[in-house]
Structures
1.
Amino acid sequence: MTATTAVSSGKARWPVPTGLGIAASCAFAFVVAPLIVVAGAALNAEAMFFPPRQLTLRWMMAALTEGSFVNGALISFVVAVVAAAFSTLFALPVALQLRKAPPAVARILTLSFMGPLLVPSIIFALALYSVMIYAFGVTNLSILMIGHVIITMPYPVRTITAVTEHLDPALEDAAGSVGASPWRTFVSVTLPLIKPGVIAGFLFAFITSWNDFSISVFLTPRELQPLPIKIYEYLLYQYRPIIAAVSTWSVIGSAIIVLIIDRLVGLNVFTGRRS
């Protein structure tokens, strides 16, 4: 009777916020607020202020044509594409083998491949720098890419592993029973089924490489600096809205890639559950 009366009255009742809901809202605001501040500062006419005092898109347009940042973005793009491609290629056989391993062994190996995510990035970067200098004696673009492959590999390993957990072995057995070779089975059956995880892993690796600072600051050669290093060096000497505009474009690009990943496999892929 009470429910019927509430519906018939046509009055909407707003849910009373709980302590957990308030805490989640505060956490969301804490994460998003810096992005809003940076985007707002990029819209200022003269100086870095928030809220913006005189709105303009001048700095957003200038960020797309400033030579130093464009060169840094191109270098970051090349490094990110190469690193993501190699880390995904390396992660693919690893994920497929983890699927066949005993559960206890698979968990231990998975944690091992997650190693770069468990160590503070600056410590890992310093250790990697020491190893590279000892092994090669120099830092160059190839060394930088090796470093980025190492730090990005956990992402495709996890995304591909999460997708293969739902792969029905009977499909591969059926292909083998009609005479398909292991390679033919992989290309025709396995790869199409796990393609969303492969693409998502590549995109996760691309974002990680694109935004990396810790590894890049140690391994970047002076003449070929990626975008995060260009931004850092610019901030050492200047503080104009163009730097906020460059950061805003980078955030927009990363957000678009995250949305694509969410559509492919879901952002809960690292928990081992697909959407």
2.
Amino acid sequence: MQVKAARGYDSSRRREQAERNRAAALEAAWRLFKERGYGATTVSAVAAAAGVSAETVYKAFGGKAGLVRALWEQGLAGQGLVHAQERSDVMREHEVDPHAIVRAWGAFAAEVMPATAPVLLLVRAAAATAPEMARLRVELDDSRLARMEGNARFLADHHHLRAGLTVERARDILFTYSAPELYELLVLRQGWSPESYGVFIGESLETALL
């Protein structure tokens, strides 16, 4: 029994150390990506800045593209204990007022965009010269489009869309208002607060969709 307990403790410590290494690598990668750009940042530099081996970074993320993907996934989770998309889905299923639903979508955008938009803009910039980033850009855009189609179909199935608006057009409207370029324009360039941006998204979706 003592051996089993020791092994369990050792396993727990290894997991905790792996999580600390992962967090340190992501923090270092994001700092270097912002300072140097994607192309000039190497896995070795990320590992050195994080205080881990390059092998550890490769094992955890597979390379630079994996680091970028993990940064995006981390931002998409939001700030709560439950993933932001899961909270959004639960809200959508329980809220009966469509206006409250789309305003909540604006609030979720305000929560996740400060972390996800800069990563997506990094992907956009790097895609011009890095094939793996071009592929990741298409993948992430397709993922967002599919989610927006799901949201549009939910509104249509519950008869919330305004007359004459198709699921496809509603999907494209949602896709546009969830684009990182809009966050870049209003928050990063024009100095809006994320909260004001979120309110704008919600109000605009009310007008465009309902």
3.
Amino acid sequence: MALPAASAGADPGTAALLSIEAISLRFGGLKALSDVSFHVRNGELFSIIGPNGAGKTSMLNCISGRYTPSEGRVVFDGQDVTRLKPNRRAAIGIGRTFQNLALFSHMSVLDNIMVGRHHLLKNNFLTGALYWIGGAQKEELEHRRKVEEVIDFLDIQHVRKAAAGTLSYGLRKRVELARAVALEPKLILLDEPMAGMNLEEKEDMARYIVDLNEEWGMTIIMIEHDMGVVMDISHRVMVLDFGRKLVEGEPAEVLADPHVRKAYLGEDDLDEAAPAAMTA
């Protein structure tokens, strides 16, 4: 699969946009995450890999606010957001997609993407009346303009008026990405953005992700099982193992780790990922 090679990414001296500090997460007697720490620099494309049940999605849920960790802190852009609700985290610049599609099937593609901008509305209970008299139309036009930029970027102009539920799986994944991008996040969390896609769809999605990082300046944390994709486009990779951090580093370093090679990649994935990692 011909994928775009990762750029050098954020300078090692760049300050962390996100810091995960000794996060643990329990569900009754089950410990989903155990004392996990890492940071993501501003401008990085950072991937989290590991087997099913390793705690990858649980970590994204702690970052986005769906889960509150039992221990530890989540620090975003210098602010402790550990106890903030998901809508407050969205408002300060954390967007995400989901492993299972979370679109409004009966709504049009355009309306689904507009939902991603709801937190940017300026009116409130006290200023609403005056706002609607003077600024609503202007703001509506600006939101539409931003959404159209996202639609053009992701090449979904031809389905903009279609109901989301009528689209192919690959297009629905692209619409969900569009909704997250429309939020204009500083950090975007992608939970298996290429799951269930064919080869051509994966290549397209990989290019969109790289362009979001390099051209749109978005910092990205991605969960993805396709090791060829991960090793080609990531700046750094972290491996989780039963809720614990096993290893973290640049793709070639992670790929060379004997524990990772033996337990998590498998011979077939290694054959596909190694040449790409060596040339990245």
4.
Amino acid sequence: MLDRHHWLKRISALDPVRDHVEIHRISAGHEFPWDYTRALEFALFRTYCVPSISALLAATGEFRSRPQKRYDDTALLMAEIAAHGYESARGRSALRVINRAHGHYAISNDDMLYVLSTFVFDPIDWISAYGWRRLHPHEELAAFHYYREVGARMGIRDIPSSFAEFRTFKRGYEESRFVYADSNREIGDYTVGLFAAWFPAFLRPAARVGVRSMMPPAMLDAFGMRPAPALVGVMARAGLRARAFALRFFPARAESALARMPHNRTYPGYPSGYHPDDLGAPPPPADIPAHCLRARPPRS
């Protein structure tokens, strides 16, 4: 068994700029795999508070017809890049799948930049609140440099050059773009339903309330959802902090959890028998409004 602080010692010895891929792999795969998964779920959920994002998602019909597959594709593609690196063969394949899917649609650079910012800062904020230890400064900076490189390979322009500048961009975007829209509510309801579906039927109503209890007022307003009873939020946060306290006494994880999802709902046994090229969304539906498309690809 590895000493509990084995990976923290390794992180502290690495350079957050030069070694950002390794640091991020350790942080997301060894130290905080469960926390990164939950944080990125909420990061994507948060982006649906922006009407220009939710309207496009509603137009594709993906959340209506196959929400679990869309969730699994996104999670696995990002995990492939983190596990193997954005310059690896599997990492490049995952990026090609992501870019091909995005390339069909008229997505603004600012919206893409905002989504990227949530991938950097939502895990940092989640782990600050519910992680078994505080993030090392190298982990925070490495996450910024890692996603900056990923974003550049996704064709995202004008990515801020500093951690603080990117944080400021994210806050400003949320303050100006989080407003209610029917499409926000539609995609929000589908997503809450997806989260609840992971539980037995008798627990699903409680799961829906639990999800709302973790949402700040700005998100609730943008989705048009009622706040959960205050006691539910208190209990949820207490449970997360109790879990974090218990994890302090566990040995360090020897094997990375990234892209190791044998119980995946859409791709059983992943990654055995699967490749990043097997993932991803289908072409746009024939009835999608023309203004949602960047350029309609020829249909065979």
